Amino acid sequence: MSSSGLLSLDLFSLQIFIDNEWHDAVSKKTFATINPSTGEEICQVAEGDKADVDKAVKAAKNAFRLGSPWRKMDASYRGALLNRLADLIERDRAYLATLETLDNGKPYAISYLVDLDMVLKCLRYYAGWADKYHGKTIPIDGDFFSYTRHEPIGVCAQIIPWNFPLLMQAWKLGPALATGNVVVMKVAEQTPLTALYVANLIKEAGFPPGVVNIVPGFGPTAGAALASHMEVDKVAFTGSTEVGHLIQVAAGKSNLKRVTLELGGKSPNIIMSDADLDWAVEQAHFALFFNQGQCCCAGSRTFVQEDIYPEFVERSVARAKARVVGNPFDSRTEQGPQVDEEQFKKILGYINLGKKEGAKLLCGGGPAADRGFFVQPTIFGDVKDNMTIASEEIFGPVMQIMKFKTIEEVVERANDSKYGLAAAVFTRDLDKANYLSQALQAGTVWINCYDVFGAQSPFGGYKMSGNGRELGEYGLQAYTEVKTVSIRNQQKNPCNLLLSNFPTPLTICG
Amino acid sequence: MQMTLSQFREKGTIKPWVLSEQNCSACLPLNFPCLSKTRPEMSSKKQTPANPAEGTLPAPLSNLKIQHTKIFINNEWHNSVSGKKFPVLNPATEEKICDVEEGDKEDINRAVKAAREAFQFGSPWRTMDASERGRLLNKLADLIERDHLILATMESMNSGKLFSIAYLLEVNSAVNTLRYYANWADKIHGHTIPIDGKFFSYTRHEPIGVCGQILPWNFPLVTLAVKIGPALCCGNTVVVKPAEQTPLSALYVASLIKEAGIPPGVVNIVPGYGPTAGAAISSHMDVDKVAFTGSTEVGLLIKEAAGKSNLKRVSLELGGKSPCIVFADADLDSAVEFAHHGVFFHQGQCCIAASRLFVEESIYDTFVQKSVERAKKYTLGNPLNPEVQQGPQIDKEQYTKILDLIESGKKEGAKLECGGGPSGNKGYFIQPTVFSNVTDEMRIAKEEIFGPVQQIMKFKTIDEVIKRANNTHYGLAAGIFTKDLDKALTISSALQAGTVWVNCYGSFSPQTPFGGFKMSGNGREMGEYGLHEYLEVKTVTVKISEKNS
């Protein structure tokens, strides 16, 4: 019996999921997935590569053929299947939250209360869209009648990251399936377990074979095979900007598949001196340290107005020092380990660079345990815009606090980045809030809050933080082709002409 | 004596002549809304056009003088940084019309800088009311309409397009498109969003920024309007590269952009070549979006360049090999006519050309016979001459490519029904050509010909024709001719194409979105959908102390 010591892994298969069946890798290779709290192997998982991707794409294409059960299915029934999947995930919520914490290292309380809650809401939100994504009828000039059909694009490759494995799976599957696409999903090699468990639930929910296929594997092999595949109609990727470039290039070199990207960020969080200071300190702390700092939208450039700077820094350091780092299964723990050794080392490298380049280390600055990939909550003060820690994405628990004087200055500095994912403003002044929310080049602007996500609100990047939007109604556009159908009419009758043929009403006489 | 522009304007339009069967039936397609009402054979009863201007055509200008040949940046005219120029030819005579400044990387850099400056936060363009942007676009449309005859004559001379089509279709469509988008400017609504929790959330639909726009040579003015209309109504700034074959009308419109009062730097127009100026746009680190209309081959390069540079947004309108399916129950004469114009319109130089015509077995022979008769009716010649129904191909490269594909059709065993070679000794004229007994694996059935060459194939069943129609990497458009409602709906669902026409072909209007499935493109132009390509969505979420529904 394979076991993690905490929970049984016998409830699902650790293979490649194609056509609602489990397969070994064509190469028979497997790879280890590691528990980041201990550095030990949890289990071996089948390693998908090009040959497996080809099999999965073939299955998906077959499920998408004209006349297939999936293509003929009522849109309302697609919605029902998505709702059923959400119900099954809710039934197994504790198991999935445990598995997520084991594989990813995030605190169990967060897995259970935040990740799983958002997964359920996202799937149910898109379930409801399935029969409500309307095309339009269009008043075209001339004797024609015109309408649009919002059709599924076809085989969608979805490459998801390791920081929110279950949630990113839901963000990707929800809109793709609601609009009737078929999916080949490559899950991150660091965190393949929960996605494979969900594969079981997809089958149990009754999705037809081939509609969702899940291939665990590595980016340069399985991921690259998807991005350059000639039979894949669309690729959606969440991950680094560096890999985002490769994916867009691969699409241009292969078949012009549609590309949506959710990439990195270096999001500014601007604290004006009139803000509610306690709240701003707490939110700025949360903005950066949430999920061990492993958020693409992390508030990793905290700009604080000059007159409150010393006090803000002092309180932020006190807050960071109080942060509880440790076993993610302990209910008091706020911060677990980083996801793997590579990230752990990269973050420590950035911390060293910060020290070298002259930023002031105010707390933390090193590993937080003898084993596992734990990093101390770290704060740098007196950070300058040209320092590496102020311009590159660290993806760890390392906070950079900068000082500013005027609102014009902070806009310029905040926008002086190749990234444009998110931004936040803390102020009580309506004018300042409105000015900044217009001026900031970011796909999401939070005012007096941070990391507020709702399935209803679109999310995505300006500039090199991505292309396209996920979530909300906007997220549906990324999974549909618009077809215009125009039909020749013998005669067109606008309704005002019809009305003129009506008799005049009778006059009622007393 | 040459008439000056102002003299011409005072004088108004030259003696109009009215469209009639004699002078126009062979050259004008049935599918354009502005023309369809004048076509008696298509309508049960004769109707007079609602707008008296419809259907009237003046004579082209005989003494057109080209005034604008330089690079347009910041509402000013510039020589190229390199000092180079390139010749612009009249494809009907192969003679040079004029030399135009040749923009390259350095000129693109200057244009992008100007566009970036115009897009600065707090700039006149950024602080302008949306309604005022709309008013400026309407003004531009008015100015194009005022200079209708100049632009139509210029377009006809430079692109080889029939004057009647340039006047009635090209310029009118450009004007209609600009007005359509002008009126969107203050109606692009964001949403307020019922987000969970004690928050208030809304979206702003913001302009993307500096947009590179690379135009083709087949419809120079229409594609210019389709590109700048949505870009400007959303508040972007643009750097336009017109095709090297046909830069003149875009440069003329540049002068009208200045006259309309659009602020400096908002529209910049850089004539030049694809591998130099075009490549500089698509790989530029300070261009936020690139929109391209042209070949699939170049579309691939543009998407790749975006991936290699700054992940700029990409929208592409590319090639096609569009199927047109005629069922035995269709109105045969109407189907022959539409299918004919579907491929022969504008010398076959349309991305939507109906270049794979699938005809049901039982009517195949009659259909071929009627199509050949129809194709033989053409007079080729100078497109400014009203007696002419087909002009030249755009340039020697296209001309040679088309003739090569015609030869391949003969060699691979298709039956040449008519045409099949060049026409005349001067200019890039090709005979209207019809091939029957074409099979799917022949080159002429797979490759985009972009010339006056019709391929007619035979089919038996619906399932078969759907499969064959979809068996291509293109997916731009398709046509269906049938009287059967069930067939029309089944096939319009099944075809992989961004536009499906039922009992018509090629009907365009600014209200309907247009774009490709598969390798015919990414994204949509025209209609409300076309706005998405020029907007970034920003979600603003504000904490509130208490929420009430």
TrEMBL record, chain A:
Residue ranges of the TM segments: none
Aldehyde dehydrogenase domain sequence ranges: 22-485
Superkingdom of origin: Eukaryota
GO molecular function annotations of the record: aldehyde dehydrogenase (NAD+) activity
Residue positions of the active site: 262
Family to which the UniProt record says this protein belongs: Belongs to the aldehyde dehydrogenase family.
Protein name: Aldehyde dehydrogenase domain-containing protein
Naturally occurring in which organism (per UniProt): Monodelphis domestica
Taxonomic lineage of the native organism: Eukaryota, Metazoa, Chordata, Craniata, Vertebrata
Automatic annotation (TrEMBL), chain B:
EC annotation from Swiss-Prot or TrEMBL: 1.2.1.3
Active site: 317
Annotated signal sequence range: none
SUPFAM superfamilies on file: ALDH-like (SSF53720)
Highest taxon above the source species: Eukaryota
Keyword NAD part of the UniProt annotation: yes
UniProt entry keywords in alphabetical sequence: NAD, Oxidoreductase
Pfam families: Aldedh
Listed GO MF terms: aldehyde dehydrogenase (NAD+) activity
The keyword Membrane is annotated on this UniProt entry: no
Region of interest (Disordered), ranges: 39-60
Aldehyde dehydrogenase domain residues: 77-540
Protein name (record): aldehyde dehydrogenase (NAD(+))
Protein's organism: Monodelphis domestica (Gray short-tailed opossum)
Gene giving rise to this polypeptide: ALDH1A1
